[in-house]
Structure formats: C-alpha cells, structure tokens
Design goal:
The protein is an alpha+beta fold and 314 residues long. It has eight helices and 15 strands.
Length: 314
C-alpha cells in the first residue's frame, strides 16, 4: 500500500505533503471485515491514525514527551509552549526544528519494535529558559503523576487568568456555535480516513471556521490550533509580554471562538484562559471542573453542540 496516497491533501494544495523523514500521520493496517449475520467476510488494506512519542526539547533539555499525531508539529510546539506558560510571546521562540524520525527497537526506549518517534527542538529566550529550569528543579525527585508532574494537591494550578470579555461576545448566537461545530467534519481529512482524531477549530463570530488542526489528543489539537493562531497573527501579542506576567500586555485574539470535537475538560478551558480565548464550544459535555474554571475565567463555555441543540454552561 502506498501510504502517501492515503495522506490527506491540505486545502489549496495540489499534492500530498512531504513529511521528509518524520513519521506519517496515518499508518497502513491490514484488517479483517466483520458484518453482522455473515461473520468475517474478507480482509482489506486500511489506514489508522498514527500515535507516536513527540519529545519537546527546549534549549537542549527535554521537557515533555507527548503522544501525538506527527503533523503540524511546529504549531504544536509553539502552542504548547504558550498554553503551558513556558514562553510569554511567540517572539520568545527563536527557532523550531523537527528532527528526523527514528525507529525504536533495540535502543533504551521501552517501546514496541517498529514504533517511530520524533523530537521538536525549540530555542527559547534566556529568561524563558531560566523559568523552565526553575520549574524542573521544583519537580525534581517527585514520584507522583508523570503526566501532570505533581504529587500533591498543593501542586495543582487551577486558578485561571481572567479573560477580558470582548463586546462582540454577548452577541454570539447559538446558531453560530452550531454552524461552527457542524462545519468541523468537512475540515477533518485525517478523521475521515481514520475515525480516530479530534479537531480544534477557530471560528469567526458568525460560525465560519477559519483554521482547523487535528490530533489524536484533544489537548494536542488545541495546542496545534493555538500555535497556528499565533503564527498567522490571529492571536496578537502586545510589545514585550502577555497575560502570563503581571503588568504586561495580554494577548489579543481576533474576534472568534474555539470549537472542538471532544468533551470539554478542565485543561482545555485552562489553556483558553491563558491565551485570552473568550469562548469554547465542544460537541460533547463539559466536566464539573471545566465549568468552574470557565466561570472564574469569564469564558463562555458551550457543550453538547449538536444541531439543532446546544447548551451554554458558563
């Protein structure tokens, strides 16, 4: 099977993307088809979504390894750095380089043979790197949750930034929210192929989707979207800083909101608050903590956005 023939062609492009040595976002898979009443009726060649370890390396020090879809990794790295408070503005990131993939078989990584992995190297400003090293020292020696990096309730960071409520937000209609969520599937080429990836979209106030990013992880998809917004100027930063440091100018997104093909968990709301994204709409339900954080951040939170119905929780 020619794997590249199955990879979605980006809108406006006349050819399949060139991933170089990086893993492809879809992987060929031989599957057996089952039909009710007939049993297994034959085998077909199919594709599944790639889920690979992506190491995010800041100034030569590995900070996190995320299981992600290896596509739009520059957007992912920048969005992660911004949404996690590792950098204040896109200007703090001097360079982003995605390294060639490698096959994890007989090396030190405890991964199945044939699993591919890649690294994204970010060169960040010295003051941001110093902050990152301080954070690493604070976590050194802890043996708790390896995902969130904490081992006690005191380490939780659940107090969000307050989002400036723009004038246009009060006029955001349920019809516009439903229009955005209904438009997501047509802009999810990876999900159409695999049925296994989430999407995060940036919608204008009338429900028109302007940007969409996909990933097997919903928080990864949001980070990719944030990175895309920052790289294209839809998320604008004042001179010298962001909401992450007191007294500095907050990021100013263009009028619009986030639409996602997932449930709304607290970390999605937390990331939106950090970047002053005033509204989040998801196709499934929010959690109780997502609602509480949205209320404290002044974020409009929508859930169960499935035409013809939607619910506004905060």
């Amino acid at each position: 099977m020619n794997i590249h023939s199955a990879i979605p062609v980006p809108p406006g492009s006349g050819q399949a993307p060139d991933f170089g040595d990086l893993p492809a976002p879809v992987v060929p898979q031989h599957v057996q088809r089952y039909e009710k009443g007939q049993g297994f009726v034959g085998a077909v060649d199919d594709v599944v979504a790639a889920e690979v370890p992506v190491a995010l390396v800041f100034n030569g020090i590995s900070h996190a390894v995320m299981m992600a879809t290896p596509q739009d990794l520059e957007d992912f790295a920048l969005g992660f750095a911004l949404s996690e408070g590792l950098v204040d503005t896109p200007a703090d990131v001097r360079d982003i380089v995605c390294t060639a993939s490698r096959t994890c078989a007989d090396d030190a990584l405890d991964l199945p043979a044939g699993t591919q992995a890649c690294e994204v190297h970010l060169e960040v400003a010295s003051h941001c790197f110093a902050r990152l090293k301080d954070r690493r020292r604070a976590l050194a020696g802890r043996t708790g949750c390896g995902v969130c990096g904490i081992d006690s309730l005191e380490g939780l960071d659940l107090e969000p930034e307050r989002v400036a409520v723009p004038d246009w937000l009060q006029g955001l209609s349920a019809d516009a929210v439903l229009r955005a969520l209904s438009g997501l599937p047509a802009l999810q080429p990876l999900n159409r192929l695999t049925g296994a990836v989430h999407a995060a979209g940036w919608s204008l106030p009338d429900g028109t989707l302007a940007e969409v990013r996909e990933d097997v992880g919903r928080h990864n998809a949001l980070d990719k979207l944030i990175g895309r917004l920052a790289r294209t100027g839809r998320l604008r930063f004042g001179s010298g800083g962001s909401v992450l440091q007191a007294g500095l100018a907050a990021p100013q997104p263009e009028p619009g909101f986030v639409a996602m093909s997932s449930r709304a968990s607290y970390e999605l709301v937390r990331k939106c608050a950090r970047l002053q994204l005033p509204a989040l709409a998801t196709i499934s339900a929010p959690t109780s903590l997502a609602i509480r954080i949205a209320e404290r951040a002044q974020i409009h939170l929508w859930g169960f956005c499935r035409d013809p119905r939607a619910r506004r929780y905060a």
